[in-house]
Fold:
Amino acid sequence: MAGQVRVESWTAGEDAADAQAVRVVLAHPGKRNAMSRAMWRQLRSVFEELQLRPGLRCIVLQGEGEAFCAGGDISEYADFRFHPESLAAFHEGEVWPALHAMLQCDVPLVAAIEGACMGAGVELASCCDSRLAADTAQFGAPIAKLGFPMAPREAALVLSEVGPAKTRQMLLEAAVFGADQMQASGFLSQVLPAAQLQAELARTVARICGLAPQAARMTKQLLRALADGDAQAPVLQQPYAYADSAEHREGIAAFVAKRSPQF
Structure:
C-alpha cells in the first residue's frame, strides 16, 4: 500500500464546528505515515479542492495512529533519487506543489502532532498556521544520515518557521528535539499531555470556526503577501475593500449590542 491522504468530517461534539471544519489525515500503515509519492500528489489535490470549498472555516492536519509523519517513504527512493532529472521532478513536481497548495490555502490550518514529526513531517507542519503537539512528540530532519541535503524551497520553508538554530542542528547534526524545545523556539503553539491533545484541538477548532471566516481568509492573504513582498497582491492593492461587507457590519453591530456575532 502506497499510503493515502484522506479528508474526513470533523466531529468533536461542536455542531457549528462539525459543519465548518475537516480533518486531513496522513495514513501510511506500518510506516508511521511516511509520505509516498502518491501521497504527495494526493495532498496537492486535497488542498486545491479545500481552498475552493464554500463554508469551510478550519482544516486540521494530523497523522493516523501514533505518529504525525515520519518523513518520506525511503523504500521508494532508489527508483528516482540517483539521477538529477528524476530527483528534481520529485521535489519540484510533486513535493513542492503539495506544500505550495497548503501555503496558498486561505482556510486556517491547524496541525495536531503526536509521535514522530520528521523531515517531511516538519515541512508539512511548517505550512500550518497553528501547531499543537503532544508532549511525547519528536521533531527532526536527520537526512544527513541518508547522504543528502534538504531541497532548496523546502529548506527555506523550514528555516522560516523552525528558525536558523534549530534548522541547522536538524540538518547538520541530525538533532532530534522534544516538543518542549520546539515550543520554546516558537515553532509550536501549545504542548499538552497526549491524553489532553484532542480536547484542546477541539477547543481550538471551535474558536476558529466561531470567528469571522472572510476576515481569516483575508488575514492569511495579507500575511502571505507581506512575507512574499508581493506589493501587487489584491489584498494590498485594495486593503479596505471589505468596508461594506456583511461580516464587517455584523462584527461591529454585535460588539455595540453586547451580543455574540453571527458569522
Q: What stands out?
A: Residues 51 and 139 are 28 Å apart (CA to CA). The first helix runs from residue 15 to 20.
